[in-house]
Amino acid sequence: MNTTLSNQQISFYQQNGFLVIDQILSKTELASWREAVDEAVKQQIDQEGTHNQNRGESYYKYVFIQCVNLWKKNEKIRHLALDPRLGKLATDLTGVNGMRLFHDHALIKEPWANPTNWHLDNPSDPYYTRQATMFWLTLDDATVQNGCLYFLPGTHQTSRF
Predict the structure, then answer these.
(1) Which of 15, 67, 115, 158 could serve as a FRET partner for 38 with CA atoms 20 to 30 Å apart?
(2) DSSP classification of residue 133
(3) Gap between the Cα atoms of 105 and 72, Å rounded
(4) pLDDT tens digits for 1-48?
(5) Is 87 helix (H, G, I), strand (E, B) or coil?
(6) 67: β partners
(7) pLDDT per residue over 65-89, tens digit each?
(8) Which run of H or of E encompasses 65?
(9) Per-residue confidence at 52, pLDDT binned at 50, 70, 90?
(10) Which PANTHER family does the protein's record reference (predicted)?
(11) With the CA atoms of 119, 124, 127 and 133 taken in that order, what torsion angle do they form, in degrees rounded to the nearest 10?
């Protein structure tokens, strides 16, 4: 896992609120993560169905399939999510001494799914701290054509935009 950061990368993250780390996982690690997530998502979908958001809004239900807290149900995901290298990466970026896992969140964007609207993640979480961070690891290639993630630099300093 490529978690070594330069001072320039840390400064960029702290100023902009995001950082792209190309190939953070080796090819072997990426294959292992894909296998573990596929297995855990299938297990949860088999138990709860494909649209397991538990929300009534029909548009939102068809944006993506999401499975939360797989680390609590699947040993492989627990091992990956609690990898100390990710914790160190989080503390290096935020400048704090320790970090807790709030949750993992597998998002599966199916072909022709509804688009995801612009949003801020942290204001909807049940905690508030400017030291919180999230890792978004794409297990499949994310491109402009298939729906990559966009960031608005600096929005980590506000609760709305």
Answers:
(1) 115
(2) -
(3) 12
(4) 999 999 999 999 999 999 999 999 999 999 999 999 999 999 998 988
(5) helix
(6) 106
(7) 889 999 999 999 999 999 999 999 9
(8) strand 65-68
(9) low
(10) PHYTANOYL-COA DIOXYGENASE DOMAIN CONTAINING 1 (PTHR20883), PHYTANOYL-COA HYDROXYLASE (PTHR20883:SF46)
(11) -30
